[in-house]
Specification:
367 residues; 24% strand; three-stranded antiparallel β-sheet; Rossmann fold; 16 strands; binds 2-acetamido-2-deoxy-beta-D-glucopyranose; 10 helices; alpha/beta
Amino acid sequence: MLAAIMSSTSRRPPFSLLLLVAVSCAAAAAVPESTARSVRRANRHGPFLGVVVPNAFEMEPLLRSPSFSPPAKGLPPYLDVAGRRFRFGAIGQHKVVVVMTGLGMLNSGVTTQLLLTLFDVKGVVHLGIAGNADPDRQIGDVAVPRYWAHTGLWNWQRYGDGPDSELALESSGDYTRRLGSLNFTDFIVGADGRPDPAAAAAGNLLNAVWYQPEEVFPATTEGGGAPESRAHAFWAPVDARYYELSRELEVEGRLRLERCAGSGNGTCLPRPPVVARVERGCSASVFVDNAAYREFLRSRFGVTAVDMETAAVALVALQQGAPFIAVRALSDLAGGGAAGSNEAGVFAPLAARNAAAVAVELISLIP
Ligand SMILES: *[C@@H]1O[C@H](CO)[C@@H](O)[C@H](O)[C@H]1NC(C)=O
Ligand SMILES: *[C@@H]1O[C@H](CO)[C@@H](O)[C@H](O)[C@H]1NC(C)=O
């Protein structure tokens, strides 16, 4: 709840007081008093841009970037809270707090909430690598999607029910068939290794899973709105202003992205990577290395980037009213490549460096 408050710079004076109170109250619990004092001191230097990164190999290129400078005088290099390290620094004209979440939706959601609760954050920039489900994009390209969905929340339908059968608890509004389903029968393979419609007619005990929107609880605005009043969100939009600014990143020649993995020994990409603003990305706590599922995600949801964290960061930012955008560099084809193994083994470091280069440039564009 504090985050929405903190992100509203126009209302800062009364609410920084509120933060003081809240942080003091929290002191006896998760945040020790000495840490709470450090947080208060740090916030006097705010507001910050929050930079949220999944893993160390995606964060290192950012911290090593010549555009990342040490924190302003009076700020420590970092504060450790609840198992996370919040690193202070500056990128361009912005003071930043950089935090690593760890893998998956739970880690990224919890860490983003912690960031927004503790610190005076005016916006969140997320970066990392992703699988690519978009035939128009190549490995190494950096995608900036306009919408993000969590595609790991399902209603798994019982065998024997069909597309017209109501889902369990659908009538109470908990679940919906609006977003469509994945029917396991469609993926049965015959002796020739291809989908087998004849075998499919017999059905599949796994039947189908139906995609569900996230239940969200938007932070109450000053004096209004009721806590625990449920809403639903599937496509979480990025901040419209940040998205507009990211248009500049597509300008040819503005950014020189890396093309060769390692020392350029034959693992070079067919063309120099580019930044591409795209419509959609999706996330779930699932590593996708499967061509059929990749194609399903593309045809059902029109996604480019497939990853394991961004939608959680987006959904927390959305509920807390914090402006948010994500850049994800494509490291592999999510199982759709011709090679025998996932391309991320070779291209993940290159993608991580490209993601950092684009994130730094994007941050410098934010006024
Ligand atoms: C899944 O496909 C099978 C075979 O076509 C069909 O019998 C079943 O009704 C389908 N289930 C759903 C939920 O669409
Ligand atoms: C190229 O270099 C990378 C990184 O040093 C290495 O992992 C890869 O195996 C090399 N590829 C070839 C074809 O030699």
